[in-house]
Amino acid sequence: MTQDSQLAGHLIVECLVAQGVTHAFGVPGESYLAVLDGFHKYREQIRFVINRQEGGAAFMAEAAGKMAGRPGVCFVTRGPGATNASIGVHTAFQDSTPMVLFVGDVASDQRDREAFQELEYQNFFGPSTKGMAKRVERIDDPDRIPEYVARAFATAMNGRPGPVVLVLPEDMLTKPTASRPLPRVEAVESWSDPGALRTLREMLLAAKKPFVIAGGGGWTPQAAQALQRFAENWKLPVGNAFRFQDTFDNHHPLYAGDVGIGINAKLSARIQDSDLVLAIGPRLGEMTTGGYTLLKPPRPKQKLVHIHASAEELHRVYRADLAINATMNAAARSLEVLTAPPDVPWGSAWAQAANADYLENLKPQKLPGDIDMPAVVAALQKHLPADALITNGAGNFASWTHRFFKHHGLAKGHKTQLAPTVGAMGYGVPAGIAANIVSGRVALTMAGDGDFLMNGQELATASQCGAKSIIVLLNNGMYGTIRMHQEREYPRRTEGAGTELANPDFVALAKAYGYEGVRVTRTEQFEPALLAALERRQGTLIEVMLDPEVITTRGTLSAIREAALKKA
């Protein structure tokens, strides 16, 4: 090795530093030892966070990508390491999150022999509009590492953001190279067509009941602020797409609520009655559209304007009346200068009524048990700082914050929701830990008992890193969402059917990992526990013993069962 050269594995890390990466997440493996040595060499510039399982590592990288708008980075070893990490890649794909997964691979001279843990990554991660990665590439030449890394970052950020997989043969990583990193890659802005904007203005002037659905990846505080000005200029009601509830400020008088699972019935009716829907950013997937019912493909009854960063996404599911290919920064900045008339055709009453419906939906119904979940969320709203990050996995437990928590969001300078639109269980715990590691901000995770157990081991990662998250664990002794569906479809046929859980002592488990553990059985116990957790230097798990009957924010398990039996 010459004076100007270094190991290829070291160059990988140097290239990450050049791209502005400060944290990488992963589980070590012998297939990329040279990269691990690179993390040692550049340890003053980048931190390698040691995870306990590749799924947790990939979720952390995805969460970091959501927060920064630049690729979160994850390293795993071949075969099982990569397949474990695939849950994070799939999440990044469906959530439109920039991410780069590096996979240590078998040596080049051992390929195609079914070597130890060998896998064909092109086939597994198969790039497509239905796959898990935007691009899958293998680096065989160490001198080309800067090219591949820069392209991975560009691909992950440009158009619809998403994950890229780079495969690293073990023998390639130990070769010397004198190549140098390429400069930091920035996302390319795609601007709205001026003619399309004129058409959009004409459509707005002809509308009587317009509605905006905002969400998807690629938003920045500046873009969110521009969206807010556009909505204010045109007096437009705005709903946030499923699990992008921080896109538009929930405290704003034009906010109409979240458009997703458990949607307010009045909001659902409003969108269906609308004569013009402006979808700015979301891909309009199953969850946002209520199983493709709010907007019915391929041709909705409402006029549809779809603005999206990916040309491939436009007209893929819905035949829009107007499709605009633009990134969110560019789109929002174009919209905010779209001249509005002194008086819009629909007046101010349309948006005011939408906001009134949203505020009315914040009023809870009385549900059984000793835990009042709306009061729990009210305590979170009262005591968490405005820039706190709220994370969750997948399950009915998430609906409590979805319905009752009001995000300040991006327009006020910070992303505040990290949640998987893909519906991946186990996301919330590692996402909250990653959020605190990367930002230092307060991170609050809402978790279910089954959800927590999928990645609860990452509490050990948090303790080792000196990170702090607060986990509110709702324990109802079952996979609650599936139980709800069982009772709806097969009432009273749940015994032995896969949803009952015999749980560990979560308080003791948290303490074993280095967190504080607190059990709450009555509502009045929660607020003091939260205040203590906020003051505590270490992380805290607050186990909330939730009555199994309290299965949704709107009704009980028994009511769902009885309704199903009446239909039988």
Q: What is the CATH class of the largest domain?
A: Alpha Beta
Task: Tell me the span between the first and last alpha carbons.
Answer: 76 Å
Largest beta-sheet characterization = 6 strands, parallel
User: Which regions are unreliable across 5 or more consecutive residues at pLDDT < 50?
Assistant: none
- In the CATH scheme, what's the topology name of the largest domain? Rossmann fold
**What is the fourth-level CATH superfamily of the largest domain?**
Thiamin diphosphate (ThDP)-binding fold, Pyr/PP domains
The value of Rg in angstroms is 24 Å
Mean of pLDDT: 95
Strand order of the largest sheet: 3-2-4-5-7-6
Q: How many β-strands, per DSSP?
A: 20
CATH architecture of the largest domain: 3-Layer(aba) Sandwich
Quote the beta fraction.
15-25%
- Which geometry do the CA atoms define? globular
Coarse structural class: alpha/beta
* Count of structural domains: 3
Overall helicity: 25-40%
How large is the count of helical segments? 21
